Amino acid sequence: MAQPSAKAAHDDLTELEAALLEFEELHPAHSLAKADALRDRFGMSPARYYQTLGILIESSAALRAHPLLVGRLRRTRDERRLRRRGDGSRATQ
Cα–Cα distance between 21 and 3 in angstroms, integer? Predict the structure, then answer.
């Protein structure tokens, strides 16, 4: 069975979802400039952006469209969760 092309994967995303993933690919670091760009370009606060991005990286369409980016974001999220759980368990011992 043929793999879907990157174009087909992008077609599964809304324009906003595709733009958010492309923006994150171009601007991976947290900064004030990134926060300003989020507000200017998408009309979103950084909190809303990261909430939306967190939901988006769970979709198979996002994974097909940007596999390296989504993989990196998922790993980063999972590592943070493990650190928080680890910190919390040590604090209660």
Answer: 21
CA distance 25 to 50: 13
Report pLDDT digits (tens) over 4-51. Answer: 544 555 579 999 999 999 999 999 999 999 999 999 999 999 999 999
Distance (Å) of CA 77 to CA 19, 24, 38, 74, 81: 20, 14, 20, 5, 6
pTM of the model: 0.78
Q: In this structure, what DSSP letter does residue 2 have?
A: P
Q: Compute the residue count for the chain.
A: 93
Instruction: Say if residues 79 and 27 touch (Cβ distance below 8 Å).
Output: no
